[in-house]
Structures are given as C-alpha cells and as structure tokens.
Queue: 3 jobs
Job 1
Amino acid sequence: MQIVLIGAGGTLGSAVHTTLIGRGHEVVTVGRSSGDLRLDIADPARIAEMYERIGSVDAVVSAAGDTPWKPITEMTPQDYEAAFRGKVLSQVELVRQGLRRVAERGSFTLITGVLAREPVPTGSAASMANGAVEAFVRAAAIEIAPQRVNAVSPTVFTESLDDYGAFFPGMEPVDLANVTQAYVRSVEGAQTGQVYCL
C-alpha cells in the first residue's frame, strides 16, 4: 500500500514507520521538522498542500497531535484552542480533505490516548482533545464508507516511562510494539469506527 504517515519523527511515529516499511508498504513521511514533507498539519492550508503534493494514497496514518499540559487554573482559552487545533482539527482535516485522495476502500488511522478515559491532573486539554477525536471517528465511520476510519488510543509507552511515567500514576504501560500492531490492524484490516485501546 501507499501510505502517508504524519508524525513519523516522534517516538510513536518512528516505530509505526519501521513496522509499516517492514510489512512492505511504501510510506511517505510528514513532520514539522523532519520527513519527506515538512509542514505543520495544525494549519488546514498545509494539509491541503500535503495532499496536493502526495496525490492519491491507500491510507493516511497519524501519530501526531500536540496539547498543552497545565492545571485548569492556569489554562487559558488560547490553550484549549491550541489543543483543539493541534490534535482535533488537524486530524479531522486529514480525513475531511483526504476523502478525495484516499482509495475507495482506503483508511484513516488517527491518534488519541488513554486520557479520554482516564484523566490525570494537568491533562484536561489532552482529555478534551482525545475524547473529541474518538467521537469524530465513530461519527465519520458511518458517513465515509467504504473508506474506513479508526483511532489508536494508547496509555504511556513502556519505552517512555522515564520521561512521562510520573504523569500516569498506576497506569499499566504499553510496549510500542503492541501499539504499532494496532496501527497495522487499522490499516490492513476491515474494521471501521473503532477505537483501539491499549
């Protein structure tokens, strides 16, 4: 398959990239500071540019989405807007603009996270964004068939415990290898409207 992967330079994106390449797929990587195409998908105009440059693909895979982390008492309206643009609108636009570019039975795989289900202090923006993406996936799936859309919703990565484990107290970590298999399931499988919780 021909796949475009957004966020390929990050911890998750690198693992997904390696997995997809290892399964024989052709992958175009997109990122803000690295990749075959360098652009910020938080800007809908850059998403349009991306699709113009890559043409038609079989699948769009996202492993990117930024949200601010602060106590609610320190959050501003701009912080919540940034979370919406960085993780929700960017991925909604990948689907909306990609409908004409993805194969008839192609797929979109978006990224959310455990905070949609298990909130933690300072993570209200991430919880909001993750929940919104998951709701969008379920709604979009009933409209875009036979194209498919799913989301991968992991907890903290085992490989990132040293940096982020303190933010997820008592939560069971997940190995990146398991998360990448959820991406494979979404891209190569037949399901739609699913949120793969890991």
Note: The chain has a mean pLDDT of 95.
Job 2
Amino acid sequence: MDQILSEGTFSQKLLNVLDHIEYRRIEDQEDFEAIAALRYKAYKARDVLPVSAVSMLEEVDFDRQAYVFGVYYYEELISTLRVHHVTPDHRVCQSSGIFPEAVNAFLDAGMTLIDPARFAADPDVVSELPSISYLTLRPSIMAAIYFDTDRVLQHIRPAHAAFYRRVFNADTVVPPTMTETYGFELTLLASRPREVRPKLMKRYAFFDSESYERRLMFDRSPMAGMAPLTILPTARFAQATERRAVA
C-alpha cells in the first residue's frame, strides 16, 4: 500500500510540474542552435561528449523521420530529446549506428520502432527538478502510440538500465558493450508499448495524452501546415476522459 501511495503522490507531483511545461518541435535554425548549446552544456557536465563530436547538431537531426523536441519550463528551455520513427523501409536512427545487428533484426522481422536519442537536460535544472527526465521522455511514449510501433528502444549507459526496466518493463537486447563512438559502455533495451501502456498510464498519469496533442507533435502531412510554436500537454484531459469512460 505504501508503494501505491508513493507512486500516486509522485505522479501527482509530476502532473503539477507538467502544468508549467510546453513542448516545441524544433524546426528553425535559431531553435536548433539553442538545442545544440543545451546538449553541449549537459554532455560536458556529465563527461559524456562523443569522442568524435565536432558539432552538437547532426545530419540525422534533420532526417525526415526524426523529431527533435525542446522542453520548456516556465518558457525556459530546460531539456531536449530526439525521437526517430524507424521502419523496415527507413532504418535511420541513433541505435542502429551503435547496435546495427540488433536493430536490423527487429526491422528484418517487419517491426517498427521508436528510437529516443540525444537526451539532454540543463544540469542546473536537474539538480532542482530531477524528475524532469520523465517529462523529457514523454514524447517517446506519445510517438509509440501515434505511430503504433512494436518497440521503443533505449540505448543507454548500464547504470540507467534499472530505471527503464522498472518504469517501462524493458527487456535487455544487447548487454553492456564498449562503444568506440563514446568511449564507454552502452547497453540496448527495448520495451513493448502496446503491452506496457495500460499499466504505465495508470501508474504515471503524466505520460498520458490526447490524440490531438500527438498529432501536433508528429503530424507532418501537408494538411497539418507549419509546426505549432508550442504544444501544451494534455495528460490531465486524457486522464479525465478515461475516468468518465470507466464510470
């Protein structure tokens, strides 16, 4: 019972934080420069700058199936995440460059994937708001729902694996392996979004979203027009809708 209560309290606290969060799909040069500066600050503070890095922006940031997001707290950029929609016909993503055999095995089996990458959070903010990592990962959950994918990948440092197993019920795909690109060990995990979603939304309400928020985040069709300047989270509305449906 204590664990249930603590999870409920934690979820409520993050819903309260989410009330002051805005997401922005990064499209213009000025915003990309801000993302690059944040990445550098975050990676340098954690001593995880890629060995061969010459810029904090990459060609894959501009791939047609990549979505770079900025997370704004009280209108200040505090974190960022890139989400890739990976399909058998379009295999570009960060994880495939690190663990190509494992990623291609999924794709050769006809699966579709979400690959979150380039997570970066302002170290000054993390010290005051450590739970911001959950809200930064939120677009990857939304992408899995929007694109109805089979797996969400996590290429991470081994020390973070317990978090992804606990929160997302992730399976280990590749054990800890030394990588040339980064000069330290990474492991590859994968979660099953269709199976995990009901329990995840019940435990962590802040991950929930309405369909129109997901469209604003990921729709690039001609009918969608220009990307919105900011996107307000809809977790509270989604949870209220679900409660009414149950009642």
Note: The chain has one domain: 2-246.
Job 3
Amino acid sequence: MEGTKVVIVDDSPFSIAYIRGILERHGLNVVGEAGTLEAVKEVIKDKMPQLVTMDMTLPGTDGLECTRAVHEINKDIKVIVVSSMMDDEIVKAAKDNKVSAYVQKPIDEDNLMAAISRVMDSDELYQELSDKNIAIFKESLLDGINKMAKSLITYQDEYTCQREFESKGLTIIIGIIGKFSGRMLIDLSMKTAHEITAAIMRKETNTNDEVIAVIGELANIISGNACSVINRMNKAFGLRVAPPTIMHGESVCITSPGFYTTSVIGESEFGEILLNVGFQRGDDHWM
C-alpha cells in the first residue's frame, strides 16, 4: 500500500489538507486534488492515480457523478467516499456506483487507513489469511480445551478439501464475515461432546440439549478468539463471527461450502475433534 498514488476530491481546503496529512503520514503519495467535476476529469487523466478519496457534496455535482467520471477514464481506480453525509440510501447508491468503501467525517485516522488497506491490499491480505488462519484456529481450539476442560490436544496432519463429509454426531458451524467471508466447523461424536461438557461443567450431563449448548458456546469462543487474533494482525480483515449453526443426529451429511477449506483432527482424552476452517475471495466487504 505504501507509495499508492492518490487524488483527493473535496471542495474544502481544510479537508484536503487534513486527508493529505493522514495519507502522507502513512506513506501514500498524494498526486493531485480536485473540487469540481471538470477538475476531477482533468486530474485523473493527468495523474492516473490508483485511489481516489471522494467527498459526496461538491459544487455543481456530487461524488457519485464524479465517481462515474473516474471509472469512465479507468474502471480499475478505487474510490473511497470520505463525507459527512452517510445514510442507508446514499450508501446503497455509492455501492451501486462501484464505490469501494465509505468513511464518514469527522475522519478517524485508523478507520480511514483500515478502509484503504482493505481496498488496496486485497491480494496480500488474502494470502496472509490463507497462510496463517489454520494455525491460529488450531491454537484457539487448543487454548479453549485447555482452559475450559483442563485437557490438551495433539494434532494429526492437515489436509485440504472441497467436498461433503458425514458428521460423527455433532457439528457446529460458525459463519465468518469481514474483508473475506469464511467458516469454522467443529465436528465430534456425541460421546466426545458429553465428556468435554462434563469436564467443562465439572459434573455429569444427562441431556443432549445441555451438551449442544455447551459445545456450541465453546465453538463460538474458539472462533471469536481466533478472529480477534487475526484482526490484531491487521485491522483491515475486520472479521466477525455469526451465531453458531448446530446439526446433530445419525447420518448427518455436511455439505461443502463451495470453496477450499483445511481440516485437521485433534486427538484428546475425550476423543477426536475435527477442526475445519476456510475463507474465500469475493466482493470487498464494506466496514
């Protein structure tokens, strides 16, 4: 992202100076500025930036018209709206006009740079996530079992898959959204789930409902902790977890999510635990 060529579109000298200061502190190269539609067309053709920050309220025009003008010149230029105006209708219109992100004034420096990072570093971010996610989720599962059930896990070999499989009895699926969407899946037998629940609760369990509730919350904690670690690596990931989807019973078939995932078997004193994690490329997620 450092060295990215940026044009600032705004009719306020203060806003231009303020945005320029943020961008230059982070190593971006501000190559021009504009405050009218004609000035936008001229500076884009002349400087051909990689990124444009776009105010929505401009004399004689608006940010959406200017965005369309930018993309008529070069559809690959990324546009991030930076404006005091922000509501559902205008955000939808911005998305429809291929705006890549929307940051509201007053500008928070961290939020602006995180938005730029999400937009400009997509390939590098996805590779970083692909390289590190399974190790982070494995550590989170190990830590969760260690702290809550006072037991350890040893892992077998990892393998990549893109196919359905048959559950051993209880499957917890956690959807993940953010810069990239994905899922974490934990699968285990009901016997193993009962034994883990008994260790966590420090008492024997009699009902499947209690077991399902405990293992569901354990999976939620594991996924949330792992996503927090990834977000600390880079705020641009912006990962968030959805409530767990729980399936149990005999002959339950778990379908493929439609993208490659990595699986690993964790061996514990309670039995085997399958951990499966994966993320996919897609449209950039707005934050």
Note: Residues 123-280 form a domain with the Chemotaxis protein chec fold (CATH 3.40.1550.10).
